[in-house]
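Protocol step 6 of 9: fold each sequence in the batch and record its structure tokens directly after the sequence line. For illustration, a two-sequence batch is reproduced in full.

Sequence one:
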Amino acid sequence: MANGPQAASIALRVLELIMSIILLGLSAGFTADIREARVIYNLVASVISVTYLGYVGAFVPIFFNYNSPSWIILIMEILNFVLLLSSWAVVASDFPTDCPTNSWGKQNCQIYQTMLAFGIMDWLLYTFSMSFFIGYSYVPEIREYGFFHQFRFTDYYWGCIFVDPHSGLRLRHCFGWRIFDWSDGKDMERVVANSHGQPEINVGGVGVGGAGGVAGVGSVGAPGAAGVKSADSQQANSPASKAAVTAATSTH
């Protein structure tokens, strides 16, 4: 079951996609009959919005396993906010009121009027998503980890509005390559702290010893050195090992 940030992110992104697709369809339908600069501007704004939503809604989950650099989200949120604000503003600046006698024709005039409503709704949705992202994700990230952390991959819930604080260590997929990754050192600390005798996990040259949660250094897929040493010493000191040594000695 989705928590609060997940549910809000899903709702906002789905509504933004619906509004952008409707705006795209209306502006494309109008442009098919009449070339109007204001409508073409709305068409371009809606195409950029749909493309961005495809990035956060499909590309990031599929290829980056919900990881994305924060600076991309920041730039695209601000860009869509500005484009949609200006798109419905230019429509409102020359808004027809009498469609039956309008030179565009009644149907095109009604399409033009409808574009204003959906443009405003889409802009309001982006206002919320941009505000939530900056206030709850971007600013805390910069404050805690520094300015340059935004150029690294950060774990997000679906939709890339809220940071996922419980991602921990997980497999990241990138164009068919499977890469172990963690957003920062705290994730690795959580993995070490939660090992407690679990089978060893080796990531990027760091091994977490399964015996007693002892950490060691080793190559990917190979046990950590400290973990192996600890396990060997415990096995050598066990009663069964001592009995086997005594039996072998007496035999000779």
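Sequence two, same batch, same settings:
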Amino acid sequence: MKRIVLLLTISCLFIGANAQWVINPYSFGGTPVIPDTAKFNFSLSARPVSGWYNFVMTSRADQTLFSGTDQGITITTTAASGTNWTPEGTSPAATSAQNSAPASTLAGWPGDVGLDYAFNKKSAAPANAAAEHWTVSGLTPFATYKFEWLGSRTTAETSRTCYYTIRDNTGVTTSALHEAKGNTSTIVTLTGVANASGIVYLSGYGGGTTANSLYVYYNALKIYKVTP
């Protein structure tokens, strides 16, 4: 009887440990992460991908608020104002596009999540939280998260560079310069600590001042919690 109880105890501990911690082979070099990964793919019209929340933006983000929730984590476009989102033109496609990027070739990122994107036209970082593009809520206060962006655009132009930013409980962090042109295999990763309300803000901006480097691209996003 004692042997049976001992085996059951060990089994329960093993299962409990695996319920809390997994090794993700696609991110952070095998760093332990808690498996409540939220995954969003952005598009102008429906682009369902199994296991991903399809964040559809059917009109301009400077005129309409959009929101979506996956695994208890909610992403909302910030105030519908030109201060936040600067469109290209006046059509619904002014802040999102369909079939305008190559398919992803990344393990763990299905090809279709790369085909569409939301985008913004601005060459400067947001000045404050009220001017950010995305509000991420539902996070554990003061917990650390990883945010992985896939940003890509099909274009014949020379370059489409951009930066990604996160405003968290400790300040603002900006990514290295990212080349979005034809990107199928590069992810931009940012780390942030949620504030007391369980919120961080995400944004991006163009990597230069020339006409073809004023844009940032949001094709797909993964959010991982890396501390309890």
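Proceed to step 7 once all outputs are recorded. Observation for sequence two: Confidence is low (pLDDT under 50) at residues 1-31.
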